[in-house]
Each structure stands twice: as structure tokens, then as C-alpha cells.
Design goal:
about 425 residues, mainly alpha, two-stranded antiparallel sheet, 18 helices, 4 strands, about 5% strand, globular, binds iron/sulfur cluster
Length: about 425
Amino acid sequence: MQWVMVAAYVALLVAPLTLPLPGSSDYIWNNLARFVQFVFWGVWWPFVILGTALVGRFWCGLLCPEGALSEIASERGAGRAIPSWMKWSGWPVVAFISTTIYGQLTSIYQYPKPAALLLGGSTLVAMAVGARYGKAKRVWCRFLCPVSGVFGTVSKIAPLHFRVEPDAWKRSSNADAAGVNCAPLIPIKTMQGSSACHMCGRCSGHRGAIRLAWRKPAADIVFGSGRMAARWDTILIVPVLLGLVPAALHWTASDAFQIIRIWLVEQCVDVGLTWPLSLRLPWWMLTDYPSVNDVMNVVDAASLLGLVAFGAFISSILFLLPLVAAAAILRRTGKLIHHLAQALIPLASSSLFCGLLALTTSQLRSDGINLPGVDAARGALVILAGLWSVELFFRISSVYCRSLQQRIVATALVAIAIVVFCTAWLLMFLGT
Ligand code: SF4
């Protein structure tokens, strides 16, 4: 199955490179480049996020072509020790921010060349890392993959996981059984939660102590791995998923983008600088497709960077201040803020999925296919996720504080931020 995925992945990346850019009479059903564009960005990206939220990281363990190729390279590779710099917990977040922004600057959702460069380049690096470090492992997936942080975060709300029964493990008479090759390097015996687990199933049944099991959705957040959340988990959720990503997905229709752009143009004109308005850079640096009237200049790029920075800043102010205040009300400081921020995972996940779904609906609309009620459904999903985040926050607060009054006040502060976010999200994405 993984080889089928690898073959499909390579074909979908390479085939559009050999074709001319689609015209106005090309549709998903009669043009391969348009079809591939829809498969990658209208189906794969949003529905892998949805699947991760519903059933965990099965995509990573069973289907991801990049992970499979990295592991295959690792089976035959040098097997060197993993360097300590590679284990820095900030890499997935930094890589996700970088690829998200680079993808927007090069219009990855519209054109096959940046898609092949970014996805294909990422796969080649994953194979190089596999060929050098670890033996039959997925070192790339565990420490460096740009979407591993997002998948790990979203999977915390999934109702399925591989459960380890410590008592059954101790009782097991199977102590001499061969160990399991957990490719993403998880210490299976002490596995907490499932955010790092790729759900490949290789350890299923090991020592009679591990099995695929149901759990209460988000129980992992309240009582499991959520308690171990740290700074980079919070950075990924608050400024990135709740700020930078909505801004990056919405910039073409954003009033704020236009305001920043006009201001920058005026500054350039005032000081007599014309090159930022006229300089064209190659397609692998900035969008450059004059044949279809789609060229991004330096001012456009700077405006986009300004917009995503603004989005990250606003979401940080909106959520971090109530989180700090709530932690103070619950009379705890330090890591509690990171655990409390985990309550925002349903909201961040739904915002990401529904934002990406805009790619699906806009591509279908441009081909004359309107899905009735889909915008209302997206709005409803974000609101329900917001309510779930409020409920989760209240449950997490019970771990640290017995006073109902303090818990209600702390939850109300975060609920206000969630209401503001949902309102802004509905106005921005649905134009209501
Ligand atoms: S913990 Fe088990 S199911 Fe999860 S990635 Fe490792 S071997 Fe696969």
C-alpha cells in the first residue's frame, strides 16, 4: 500500500510539470494539472487533517509516502546516531511556519512547480536524513517533518489510540519476545498519549499489553500528554495555528493586506523607490507567471509577511493574556499556561481544517460546482469547536483548582477570547 502511495505521489508531483498551465476552459475533470491541484490541496491536505482528528495519525504510519521513503532509506543507510541539534523541539514549528509562508509566496496551491519543489524537496531531504541517521527509523518524521507538530497536536483530540497497559506489560511472560521496531522512536512501554505515535500498528498485541482502543476524545489533553505540554506546543497552537495560518490562508481577500500594501506603496513612492514595485523574481522565490497575469512583486511579498506577522501578534495578544490571567486566578504559574493552552486544540484544529476546506470549495466553485450549505457547515464547526475548547478549559482547570468560582472566572476570560476569534473567523472566511 505504501508503494502504491509512493507511485501516486511521484506521478502527481511530476506529471503536471510536463503540461502547460491550465486555461479558463480547463476543469478538474478534463485537465490533469487542475486535477492534481485539486487532489493535493482540495482533498489531501484538508482531509488528512480531518482524518487525524477523527482516527489519529494513521496517515503518518500507514500511508505517508515521505515517511515510507525515509524509512526505506534508513533501512539501507549509514545508521548513524541522531545529533542532538536535530532533537530540538522547535524544528517542526519553525519548519511549518517556513513552509507555510514560502508556499504562499510562491503560490503553491495554484502552480505545479512550487508544489514539486517544496514537496519533492522535502521528500528528498527526508530520504537523506533517513539514509544517514537511525536504522530502519523515521528520524525525519519524528524530529523535522514540517507537519509532524500539527499532526501530533490535532491527533490529541482523536478518540482512537494505541493503549499501553502497564500491568499487563509487567505480567507478560513474553519478556524475551523480540522488540518492536517503532520507526518514530517512541519508548513504547512508557508511551503517554498518542501525539507522537504514527499508529502504524506494529506494536499492536506486543506482550499482550498494547492494543488499539477507544478513549474519550481529548482525554489525552486533560489527563495525558496535555500535562507535559511545553513552550513550543503553545507557540504552535496560539500564534501559528490561530494567527499566522488563518492570515496566510486568507491574504488574497484580506482588507488588512490591502492596507499594508497601500501603505508600503506610498512609502516607496515618497522616497522614490520603484524597484520594489517592479522587480520580478524567479518563480521559486516569488510567484512569477506573467502568461496568466499572476506576478508578485517585492511589495506584495512584504505585505504578505506583514499580514502573517500581524495575525500571529494579534492571536498572541488575544489568547496569551487571558491564559496568563487564568493561570494566576487558578493560583498556578509556570507550565500550567501550556496545559491550559491545550484546551484550544479543538478550536485550532477546526480553524485549520475549515480554512483549508476553503481551498476545496473555491476550486470546485471555479469549476462551476457549488456545494450547498458548506459555508454554514464550516462556520458551525468552528463555533462547536470553540464551545468544546471552553468545556475542555473548564475540565483542565479542575486538575489544578477546587474552587468552582475561580474556575468559572478563569474559563470566562478564555471564553471571551474564543468568542472574539470565532466572530473574526466567521467574518473573515465567510464574509458575513
Ligand atoms: S507506538 Fe506502536 S503504533 Fe505507534 S508508531 Fe510506534 S510501533 Fe507504531
